[in-house]
Amino acid sequence: MREISLGDVPGLVGKELGTSEWITIDQTMIDLFADATHDHQFIHVDPARAEAESPFGGTIAHGFLTLSLLSTMNFNTVPKIREQTMGINYGFDRVRFMSPVRSGSRVRGHFTLAECRFRGAGMLMTTYDVSIEIENEKKPALTACWITIVQFDPKDRPEGV
């Protein structure tokens, strides 16, 4: 994984930072997510019924399961900031679930740095335009505007920002 400095981040605004590795969303993952969230709707956990009664031809992943994979996709794709002491998920301005993710599908994330701004003495707020691609599908599983905060020691703040 490549590393960058805090001072490099503003120069990356508008650039795609990378594409994650493929992740397979199988039925076991879907079932475990259903158990964790208490969302056992048949389109997620009952393959026979989902095939017979849904337009999807089988079970599909929860949208929030797909969304939750952004954290690991980000960790393995976006360059590490040397001075970072902690990363914080600040939230989303927009999330759109564009296409269902069928059980057994592979997905990967695309990350573009849309904005960054220094806040306070030791924080950098970053906004990413993200999408999760489904292998061999034209439409993405989701698109989102994701906001994170990079914390760092104030002594490491680049001059002039």
Shape: elongated
Helical fraction equals 10-25%
CATH architectural name: Roll
The biggest beta sheet is recorded as:
6 strands, antiparallel
Q: Fill in the CATH topology.
A: Thiol Ester Dehydrase, Chain A
| Strand content bin | 35-45%
- Unreliable stretches (pLDDT < 50, length at least 5) are none
Mean pLDDT: 96
Structurally, how many domains make up the residues? 1
Q: What distance separates the N and C termini?
A: 26 Å
CATH class value: Alpha Beta
The helix-strand sequence is: EEEHHHHHEEEEE
| CATH superfamily placement | Hotdog Thioesterase
**Rg from alpha-carbon coordinates:** 18 Å
Total number of helical segments?
Answer: 5
Number-wise, the strands total: 8
- Which structural category do the helix and sheet elements fall into? alpha+beta
Question: Can you walk me through this structure?
Answer:
The chain is an alpha+beta fold. The mean pLDDT is 96. It is elongated, with a radius of gyration of 18 Å. Strands 2, 3, 5, 6, 7 and 8 form a six-stranded antiparallel beta sheet that branches. It has one domain (3-156): Thiol Ester Dehydrase, Chain A (Roll). The protein contains five helices and eight strands; from the N terminus they run βββαααααβββββ. InterPro entries: HotDog_dom_sf, MaoC-like_dom, NodN-like. Pfam families: MaoC_dehydratas. This is MaoC family dehydratase.
Short synopsis of the structure:
With 161 residues, this protein is α+β, with helices and mostly antiparallel strands. 21% of the residues lie in helices and 39% in strands.
Task: Describe the secondary-structure layout.
Elements: E1 3-4, E2 16-19, E3 23-25, H1 27-37, H2 42-45, H3 47-53, H4 63-68, H5 70-75, E4 80-81, E5 84-97, E6 105-119, E7 123-134, E8 142-152
